[in-house]
Structures are given as C-alpha cells and as structure tokens.
Amino acid sequence: MAKKVVATLKKEGGVTYAKVIKAVKSEKTGAYTFREEMVPTTMVQETLNK
Predict the structure, then answer these.
(1) Among 25, 40, 42, 47, which has the highest number of CB atoms less than 10 A from its own CB?
(2) pLDDT on residue 29
(3) Are 3 and 23 in contact (CB under 8 A)?
(4) Do 5 and 20 touch, CB atoms closer than 8 A?
(5) Integer Cα distance of 36 and 22 in angstroms
(6) pTM of the model
(7) How is residue 12 annotated by DSSP?
C-alpha cells in the first residue's frame, strides 16, 4: 500500500479544504507517480478509499 499524505489548508468561503497526495503505481512501468487533489475535509476519507 502506498503512503498517503493529507495537508489541511485555510478556509475559503466557510469550507475547509485539504490537499490529498497519493502515490499510484503504474501498471506499465511499475514506477510510482503522485496524484494531488484538493478536496473538502469532509470528503478526505472517501477520496482516499478510491
């Protein structure tokens, strides 16, 4: 399982956002790449479970 990183960012308009960084392994080469997403803090667990 790849390491998952979550950083909480400032509030914007009453909604708090978090930057989710996931390491994803490529099926072709076997190398890891990083995917970054900005999601509301209420959706962090849902995003990580994808």
Answers:
(1) 47
(2) 93
(3) yes
(4) yes
(5) 7
(6) 0.59
(7) E
C-alpha span between 47 and 34 (Å, rounded): 14
Distance CA 17, CA 29 (A): 33
Residues 6+ apart with CB under 8 A from 16: 8, 9, 10, 40, 41
Q: Cα separation of 41 and 20, whole Å?
A: 10
d(CA 30, CA 24): 9
Compute the distance between CA of residue 25 and CA of residue 9 in angstroms, rounded to an integer.
26
pLDDT value, residue 30: 92
